[in-house]
Amino acid sequence: LLKVDYDVCSNYGNWLYSAGIGNDPRDNRKFNMIKQGLDYDGNGDYVRLWLPELQAIKGADIHSPWAVSSAALSQAGVILGESYPHPVVTAPEWSRHINQRPQGQSPHPRGKKGPAHTPVQHRGIDFYFSRKKDA
Predict the structure, then answer these.
(1) Binding site residues for FAD, as ranges?
(2) Which terminus of the chain, N or C, has fewer Cβ atoms within 10 Å?
(3) Are 44 and 62 a contacting pair, CB within 8 Å?
Protein backbone atom coordinates (compact mmCIF):
# COMPACT_ATOMS: atom_id res chain seq x y z
CA LEU A 1 0.00 0.00 0.00
CA LEU A 2 1.37 3.39 -0.96
CA LYS A 3 0.17 6.63 0.57
CA VAL A 4 0.46 9.61 -1.75
CA ASP A 5 -0.87 12.34 0.52
CA TYR A 6 0.20 13.52 3.95
CA ASP A 7 -2.22 14.29 6.74
CA VAL A 8 -0.47 13.16 9.91
CA CYS A 9 -3.44 12.54 12.20
CA SER A 10 -5.68 11.04 9.56
CA ASN A 11 -2.95 8.88 8.03
CA TYR A 12 -1.63 7.51 11.34
CA GLY A 13 -5.14 6.77 12.54
CA ASN A 14 -6.09 5.05 9.29
CA TRP A 15 -2.86 3.01 9.20
CA LEU A 16 -3.53 1.81 12.76
CA TYR A 17 -7.15 1.04 11.90
CA SER A 18 -6.12 -0.89 8.77
CA ALA A 19 -3.56 -2.83 10.81
CA GLY A 20 -6.29 -3.83 13.25
CA ILE A 21 -4.65 -2.30 16.30
CA GLY A 22 -5.73 0.40 18.69
CA ASN A 23 -9.04 1.00 20.42
CA ASP A 24 -12.06 -0.30 18.59
CA PRO A 25 -15.48 -0.94 20.10
CA ARG A 26 -16.29 -3.70 17.61
CA ASP A 27 -14.63 -7.08 17.86
CA ASN A 28 -12.87 -8.53 14.82
CA ARG A 29 -13.44 -5.53 12.53
CA LYS A 30 -11.86 -5.78 9.07
CA PHE A 31 -11.19 -3.07 6.52
CA ASN A 32 -13.27 -3.80 3.41
CA MET A 33 -11.54 -2.20 0.44
CA ILE A 34 -14.32 -3.06 -2.01
CA LYS A 35 -17.04 -1.48 0.15
CA GLN A 36 -14.90 1.63 0.72
CA GLY A 37 -14.32 1.96 -3.01
CA LEU A 38 -18.03 1.69 -3.74
CA ASP A 39 -18.94 4.13 -0.96
CA TYR A 40 -16.37 6.82 -1.75
CA ASP A 41 -15.43 6.29 -5.40
CA GLY A 42 -18.59 4.73 -6.82
CA ASN A 43 -17.73 5.30 -10.47
CA GLY A 44 -14.04 4.47 -10.01
CA ASP A 45 -12.71 7.87 -11.10
CA TYR A 46 -10.00 7.99 -8.43
CA VAL A 47 -8.86 4.45 -9.27
CA ARG A 48 -8.70 5.35 -12.97
CA LEU A 49 -6.51 8.36 -12.12
CA TRP A 50 -3.86 6.16 -10.49
CA LEU A 51 -4.29 2.91 -12.45
CA PRO A 52 -4.39 3.87 -16.13
CA GLU A 53 -4.17 0.20 -17.14
CA LEU A 54 -7.75 -0.18 -15.83
CA GLN A 55 -9.19 3.00 -17.38
CA ALA A 56 -11.40 1.18 -19.87
CA ILE A 57 -13.19 -0.92 -17.23
CA LYS A 58 -16.68 0.49 -16.86
CA GLY A 59 -18.11 1.95 -13.66
CA ALA A 60 -17.64 0.35 -10.26
CA ASP A 61 -16.27 -2.86 -11.78
CA ILE A 62 -12.87 -1.20 -11.56
CA HIS A 63 -12.80 -1.97 -7.82
CA SER A 64 -12.71 -5.72 -8.45
CA PRO A 65 -11.33 -6.37 -11.95
CA TRP A 66 -10.73 -10.07 -11.20
CA ALA A 67 -14.53 -10.51 -10.94
CA VAL A 68 -15.29 -8.90 -14.31
CA SER A 69 -16.30 -11.18 -17.17
CA SER A 70 -13.68 -12.33 -19.65
CA ALA A 71 -15.48 -10.46 -22.42
CA ALA A 72 -15.50 -7.16 -20.49
CA LEU A 73 -11.81 -7.55 -19.59
CA SER A 74 -10.96 -8.28 -23.21
CA GLN A 75 -12.96 -5.27 -24.39
CA ALA A 76 -11.11 -3.09 -21.83
CA GLY A 77 -7.74 -4.45 -22.98
CA VAL A 78 -6.96 -5.89 -19.54
CA ILE A 79 -5.21 -9.25 -19.24
CA LEU A 80 -5.13 -10.42 -15.64
CA GLY A 81 -1.69 -11.68 -14.77
CA GLU A 82 -0.10 -9.63 -17.57
CA SER A 83 -1.33 -6.03 -17.87
CA TYR A 84 -2.77 -6.11 -14.33
CA PRO A 85 -1.92 -8.61 -11.58
CA HIS A 86 -4.20 -11.25 -10.13
CA PRO A 87 -5.23 -10.46 -6.55
CA VAL A 88 -2.89 -11.81 -3.89
CA VAL A 89 -5.77 -12.54 -1.57
CA THR A 90 -9.52 -12.04 -1.53
CA ALA A 91 -11.47 -11.83 1.67
CA PRO A 92 -14.81 -13.61 2.04
CA GLU A 93 -16.30 -10.34 3.30
CA TRP A 94 -15.66 -8.71 -0.06
CA SER A 95 -17.97 -11.07 -1.93
CA ARG A 96 -21.17 -9.36 -0.82
CA HIS A 97 -19.91 -6.08 -2.34
CA ILE A 98 -18.39 -7.39 -5.58
CA ASN A 99 -20.68 -6.96 -8.59
CA GLN A 100 -22.86 -4.48 -6.71
CA ARG A 101 -23.57 -1.02 -7.94
CA PRO A 102 -22.85 1.95 -5.73
CA GLN A 103 -25.73 3.82 -4.10
CA GLY A 104 -27.56 6.08 -6.55
CA GLN A 105 -25.96 4.56 -9.66
CA SER A 106 -27.85 2.80 -12.40
CA PRO A 107 -27.03 -0.85 -13.11
CA HIS A 108 -24.72 -1.65 -15.98
CA PRO A 109 -24.80 -4.73 -18.22
CA ARG A 110 -22.39 -7.58 -17.65
CA GLY A 111 -21.19 -10.34 -19.89
CA LYS A 112 -22.62 -13.80 -19.28
CA LYS A 113 -19.24 -15.44 -18.77
CA GLY A 114 -17.79 -15.65 -15.30
CA PRO A 115 -14.58 -14.04 -14.15
CA ALA A 116 -11.43 -14.73 -16.14
CA HIS A 117 -9.68 -15.85 -12.96
CA THR A 118 -11.21 -16.91 -9.69
CA PRO A 119 -8.79 -16.11 -6.88
CA VAL A 120 -8.55 -18.41 -3.91
CA GLN A 121 -10.44 -17.05 -0.95
CA HIS A 122 -8.54 -16.95 2.29
CA ARG A 123 -9.62 -16.10 5.79
CA GLY A 124 -7.02 -13.42 5.36
CA ILE A 125 -3.41 -12.65 5.85
CA ASP A 126 -1.82 -10.51 8.50
CA PHE A 127 -4.17 -7.57 7.99
CA TYR A 128 -6.93 -9.77 9.39
CA PHE A 129 -6.03 -9.56 13.02
CA SER A 130 -8.29 -11.50 15.30
CA ARG A 131 -8.23 -12.38 18.96
CA LYS A 132 -9.02 -15.98 18.01
CA LYS A 133 -6.19 -18.09 16.68
CA ASP A 134 -6.84 -21.02 14.37
CA ALA A 135 -5.37 -24.26 15.55
Answers:
(1) 5-7
(2) C
(3) yes
